[in-house]
């Protein structure tokens, strides 16, 4: 009789959830966030509304400019609609995370990637990239639309920084508005609350601070504070005013960075 040697136990090539090989790479995490964002109908509605506002308002501004005589820069006609599309950008950023909290998907997200800071960074990359691309594409389309309205002989596009820098800065501004909304979404975790806070900072608060102009010079310092709100700072940024350019750039970037930092602190300390 021949003895049968015991076979070696079968080994399964599996990894524990906490094992490094089981963790998502950052590229895959970003890809999953893109998929989640673009499978929402609200995303497409937001992007479509922002595109229509950019092109439509640019055309209206270009058409109305003939009433004021020559001198309007076509670049200004393209960048001015940002003061309206910033609301759409902020709302989109807020909905990108609050929707996960309302449906409970955030628990699945944090189970797949327990390192919460990476989740926040991945969502920030997706929102900033999406809105930057939207702003770049719609600005190009708006430029093509207003050219026959303004007339190349009557209005100079300018060159160098007068042409490209305001457009690039408007792209940056749109990305920061979306990140501001995303940060408040992480902080508040409620869709209505995050949207109301974002719209309040971008649109309502500047109007409230302007009312202090009626109370005399003793309240002028409050009016001056309004210059550093996100929307006003971004508007001053695209005007290329040399005296306030760098402070405006700092304010434009500081608002979303500070808000996202607070969102990261909340994400780390609260349960999903």
TrEMBL record:
Region span, Disordered: 1-20
Top-rank taxon: Bacteria
Annotated TM spans: 44-63, 75-97, 125-151, 163-187, 194-215, 244-267
Keywords from the named record: Membrane, Transmembrane, Transmembrane helix
Signal sequence interval, chain numbering: none
Name recorded for this polypeptide: ABC transporter permease subunit
Source organism per UniProt: Microbacterium gawkjiense
């Amino acid at each position: 009789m021949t003895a049968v040697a015991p076979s070696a136990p079968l080994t399964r090539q599996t990894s524990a959830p906490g094992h490094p090989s089981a963790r998502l790479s950052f590229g895959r995490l970003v890809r999953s966030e893109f998929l989640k964002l673009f499978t929402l109908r609200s995303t497409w509605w937001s992007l479509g509304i922002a595109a229509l506002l950019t092109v439509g308002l640019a055309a209206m501004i270009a058409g109305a400019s003939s009433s004021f005589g020559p001198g309007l820069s076509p670049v200004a006609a393209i960048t001015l609609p940002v003061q309206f599309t910033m609301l759409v950008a902020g709302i989109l950023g807020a909905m990108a995370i609050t929707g996960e909290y309302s449906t409970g998907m955030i628990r699945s997200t944090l189970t797949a990637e327990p390192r919460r800071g990476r989740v926040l960074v991945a969502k920030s990359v997706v929102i900033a990239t999406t809105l930057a691309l939207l702003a770049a594409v719609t600005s190009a389309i708006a430029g093509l639309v207003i050219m026959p309205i303004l007339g190349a002989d009557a209005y100079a596009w300018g060159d160098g920084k007068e042409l490209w820098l305001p457009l690039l800065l408007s792209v940056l501004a749109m990305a920061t508005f979306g990140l501001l909304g995303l940060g408040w979404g992480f902080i508040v975790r409620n869709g209505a609350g995050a949207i109301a806070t974002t719209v309040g900072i971008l649109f309502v608060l500047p109007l409230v601070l302007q009312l202090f102009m009626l109370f005399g010079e003793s309240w002028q310092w409050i009016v001056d504070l309004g210059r550093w709100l996100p929307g006003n700072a971004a508007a001053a940024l695209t005007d290329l005013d040399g005296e306030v350019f760098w402070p405006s750039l700092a304010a434009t970037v500081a608002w979303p960075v500070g808000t996202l930092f607070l969102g990261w602190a909340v994400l780390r300390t609260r349960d999903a």
